[in-house]
Amino acid sequence: MDNFAYKADGPLNTWRIIAKEPLGDCNDFAITAAYILSGESLVRMWLNIFLFRMVFLRVHTGTEPHAVLRYKGQYIDNITKEWSDSHGYRGIFPWVFIPPLIAFKMLIGKIFNNG
Questions:
Q1: 31 φ/ψ angles, rounded to the nearest 5 degrees
Q2: Which domain does 69 fall in, by range?
Q3: Going along the chain, which residue ranges are E strands?
Q4: Is the peptide bond before 11 cis (omega within 30 degrees of 0)?
Q5: Number of domains within the chain
Q6: Each residue of 45-97: pLDDT tens digit?
Q7: What is the pTM of this model?
Q8: How many CB atoms are located within 10 Å of the residue 107 CB?
């Protein structure tokens, strides 16, 4: 995912696993990283998400809302593209994206964005 390029969602904020072009927003980067870390298995990925082994944090970069993936005490996002001990952003309440919301946003992405 080193060649990932940012592209905003548009009017619907959806989440999708990036399959072909490494193009998307911070949510897409985070969920794709979770999928790859789960051995590219949707079952393992959802198990990790629902058991909060993988957590998607809501943060603010200083200019806009942002999503960061936390896994095994390390953080990664589409801005740094590197694992770190901290994310360095200001948290936004509620601090995490809950699993049902992630599932809903992925479903909306499938329906409306061909994700």
A1: -70, -35
A2: 5-113
A3: 5-6, 23-24, 54-60, 65-71, 74-76, 90-96
A4: no
A5: 1
A6: 999 999 999 999 999 999 999 999 999 999 999 999 999 999 999 999 889 99
A7: 0.92
A8: 13
